[in-house]
């Protein structure tokens, strides 16, 4: 049986998700095209998932072919920012090939290092717990050391069938 990867991807897209930006330190900033001495990089992901409350664990998956993979896989920690509807342009930018730099993006500092996006709905500061190969992706498990929820950040940015959207309010 042949497996139609394009159709598989389209079927997976029927599962609506939120969107997060994950940031981490870039140990060799000038080795990352498009980055600079700010030494932090970001990536747009919709694979973010909660895993465990006790201990507090979350995960996300990264394509092992991504230029960002070596940095995220070896960084001691990462920060997850849950995007609001107003972050659409930031999401599109950090989903661009080679667009790793956080230059010009509104950020807020965190205690553990990698900055968070300003106006995120929630922020999770994580220590890297494990990196598990999973086919063409790797699963990055993070232990949440600090978190914040920002009331008033508004509606989430939503992704469904390859398009950005918003929650329908009842
Ligand atoms: C809505 C959305 C969700 C994405 N989610 C993921 C993800 O969970 N994991 C991943 O590795 N890439 C994801 N991507 C792709 C990356 O954001 C980015 O396009 C890719 O890493 C670019 O390749 P590069 O890292 O080699 O520059 C997503 C892209 C979009 C638009």
Structure summary:
The chain is built from three helices and twelve strands, in the order αβββββαβαββββββ. It is mostly beta strands and 170 residues long. The strands form three sheets. Strands 3-2-6-9-10-5-4 form a seven-stranded antiparallel sheet. A three-stranded antiparallel sheet has the order 1-11-12, with no helix packed on it.
The helix count comes to 3
List SSEs in N-to-C order.
Answer: HEEEEEHEHEEEEEE
Sheet-strand content, in percent, reads 35-45%
CATH topology: Pnp Oxidase, Chain A
Mean pLDDT: 92
Q: Over all CA atoms, what is the radius of gyration? A: 16 Å
Largest sheet: 7 strands, antiparallel
What is the end-to-end distance? 43 Å
Helix/strand/pairing category: mainly beta
Which regions have little confidence, pLDDT < 50, spanning 5+ residues? none
Number of strands: 12
The best one-word shape is globular
Helix content: 10-25%
Mind telling me the CATH superfamily name? Electron Transport, Fmn-binding Protein, Chain A
**How are the strands ordered across the major sheet?**
3-2-6-9-10-5-4
Integer count of domains: 1
**What is the class in the CATH system?**
Mainly Beta
């Amino acid at each position: 049986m042949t497996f139609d990867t394009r159709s598989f991807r389209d079927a997976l897209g029927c599962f609506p998700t939120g969107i997060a930006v994950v940031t981490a330190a870039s140990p060799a900033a000038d080795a990352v095209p498009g980055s600079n001495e700010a030494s932090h990089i970001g990536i747009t992901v919709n694979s973010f998932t909660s895993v465990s409350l006790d201990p507090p664990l979350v995960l996300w998956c990264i394509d092992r072919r991504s230029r960002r993979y070596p940095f995220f896989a070896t960084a001691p920690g990462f920060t997850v920012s849950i995007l609001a509807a107003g972050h659409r342009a930031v999401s599109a930018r950090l989903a661009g090939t080679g667009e790793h730099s956080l230059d010009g993006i509104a950020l807020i500092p965190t205690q553990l290092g990698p900055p968070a996006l300003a106006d995120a709905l929630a922020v999770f500061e994580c220590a890297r717990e494990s990196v598990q190969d999973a086919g063409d992706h790797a699963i990055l498990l993070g232990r949440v050391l600090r978190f914040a929820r920002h009331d008033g950040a508004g509606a989430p940015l939503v992704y469904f069938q390859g398009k950005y959207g918003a929650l329908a309010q009842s």
